[in-house]
Amino acid sequence: MADRETLPLAGRRDEDLPGHWLLARLGKRVLRPGGLELTTRLLAAGRVTDADVVELGPGLGRTARDIVALRPRSYVGVDDTAAATQSVRDVVAPCGGRVIVADAASTGLPDGSADVVVGEAMLTMQNDKAKRAIVDEVYRVLRPGGRYAIHELGLTPDSVDTATKDEIRRALARSIKVNARPLTVAEWSELLKASGFEVVSTDRAPMALLNPRRVIADEGVLGALRLLKNVLLHGAARKRVLTMRRTFREHSDAMTAVALVGVRPE
């Protein structure tokens, strides 16, 4: 398993750990609902090359590595989990990047200081009020013409009824032990528009986080084997992973991964 001491919530038992940190402990590095492929398309749509980039919730730094490879003018990571920041600092050091410990809704960054803000799988974990606060903060930090690129868990179709939404949210809370609140694609778009953004790009991918084919695509063969070995060796973790996978499969028709880019008007 990954070195527990370098991960957030290192002292928590496998059975009590939020799902994304459990998967990280088991060795999974790509923790986004649409996988590396959707992240790659999102970064292309967000145009991070030669841009001043802020990433909210960089986690273990997997997307930060991709951003650095695209040669931004600057990089700032914002994470409220101090235990996660050192690994990201190591990743972004080659481009002179920095990581600060702060809340995504109150970053402390100057007004109009960024060209691009990237956030993945973090708005999903917030309630409606917190979602809006974060999006408002991003709008403040971006320059006119700046781009907010998000990669989140979505619900489909846009007409999905309230009862189904509530059922999925309860199932996710039980399996990943986080009160995830995914939105429909239309609702994600409206969230950005409510803070003043113009949505210029919408993309989707299957929500296949624990699908074997996706795991191999995201982690590589050796990474997938490492993950499988750790799942097999740790009983409590294995039970959790199987529960998560079952939940994702049961609701696969109503869940999707969505990536949007919103622009702050000039």
From TrEMBL:
Report the superkingdom from the record. Bacteria
InterPro entries with a match to the protein in the record: Methyltransf_11, Methyltransf_Superfamily, SAM-dependent_MTases_sf
Keyword Methyltransferase listed? The answer is yes
On whether Transferase is a keyword of this UniProt record, the answer is: yes
Keywords attached to this Swiss-Prot or TrEMBL record, sorted alphabetically, are: Methyltransferase, Transferase
Q: Which GO terms are recorded in the biological process aspect for this UniProt protein?
A: methylation
A GO molecular function assigned to this protein is: S-adenosylmethionine-dependent methyltransferase activity
Methyltransferase type domain ranges (all copies): 55-150
The protein's name in its UniProt record: Methyltransferase
Species, as recorded: Mycobacteroides chelonae
